[in-house]
Amino acid sequence: MDAATRTELEAAAFRRLLEHLRARTDVQNIDLMNLAGFCRNCLSNWLKDAADARGQALSKEDSRTYVYGMTYEEWKERHQREATPEQLKGFEESKPRH
Q1: Which long-range contacts (CB under 8 A, 24 or more apart) does 88-96 make?
Q2: Region labeled Disordered — which residues (predicted)?
């Protein structure tokens, strides 16, 4: 596979992942962190890091808006719930793997 095709496929997979996460608002970031070691905020940070590495202007706010499909504040207002004691415990236990 040539590099351009690989990049196109990777971009398509990333867009599909974002669509999936935008639809699954029931899955909290802390759940993602506990199970996978990354969350929506991580994805937005990685996107910003990639932009920075290429000298492209992308603010933290803009990268989060892209990942969440809305502003981070709006997403938190609409979908974020208070973490349960079990979620917080799981987060502390999984921290070394992040």
Answers
A1: 88/30, 90/30, 90/34, 91/30, 91/33, 91/34, 94/33, 94/34, 94/37
A2: 78-98
The pTM score is 0.89
Question: Residue 73 belongs to a domain with what CATH number?
Answer: 1.10.3340.10
**How many folded domains does the chain comprise?**
1
Q: Tens digit of pLDDT for each residue in 5-60? A: 999 999 999 999 999 999 999 999 999 999 999 999 999 999 999 999 999 999 99
- CA–CA dist 6, 68 (Å, integer): 25
Q: Which range of residues forms the domain containing residue 15? A: 3-97
- On the question of pLDDT at 94 being above 90, the answer is no
